[in-house]
Design a protein that fits this description.
The chain is about 10% helix and about 45% strand. By secondary structure, the protein is mainly beta. The radius of gyration is 20 Å and the shape is globular.
Length: about 160
């Protein structure tokens, strides 16, 4: 009986050590099954397109492999608000997680309530972030019938 209690206690401790904390948007991945939950576009978020900017590393902790986000940038916050003219203002704050200057580009695509694209995506905007600093992306829609958005981030090399 003691042996079972000890084994249950150890299992609980080990499962607590494997808690995964995600930061920022997920890395893009190939989806081969159209019915998979991640096969659809996720609207109203910031998406990091460049694997160089958002990667993962595998570390061993207490004999167990654990995945940690080690990307060069993190999405600190994002949001949208309606301007007085009825257009939409999108913002995204990005954090440079490196010890050197980092240059990225961002653009936004706007969608209506039926998830249809409204116009073309905005032009790519350069964001230069000093080491371990915050960068900000902002863009306004040109039309008023915006219901959803996607901000895309890529490296500027």
């Amino acid at each position: 009986m003691k042996r079972v209690a000890v084994m249950v206690g150890v299992a609980c401790l080990l499962s607590a050590c494997q808690t995964k904390f995600d930061e920022g948007a997920v890395v893009g991945q190939r989806v081969d099954d159209a019915l998979a939950p991640n096969a659809m576009i996720h609207y109203d978020q910031v998406v990091i397109l460049d694997k160089y900017l958002q990667s993962e590393k595998h570390v061993m902790t207490l004999g167990f492999e654990k995945t940690e986000k080690t990307g060069r940038i993190a999405v600190e916050s994002q949001g949208v608000r309606r301007n007085s003219t009825g257009t939409v203002h999108v913002t995204a704050q990005l954090r440079n997680r490196t010890d050197s200057e980092l240059k990225v580009q961002a653009r936004v695509s706007f969608f209506d309530a039926g998830y249809s694209p409204i116009d073309e995506p905005s032009g790519w905007q350069l964001i230069v972030m000093p080491p371990n600093a915050i960068g900000k992306y902002e863009e306004n829609s040109l039309v008023t019938d915006v219901a959803h958005y996607i901000v895309e981030i890529r490296g500027a090399y």
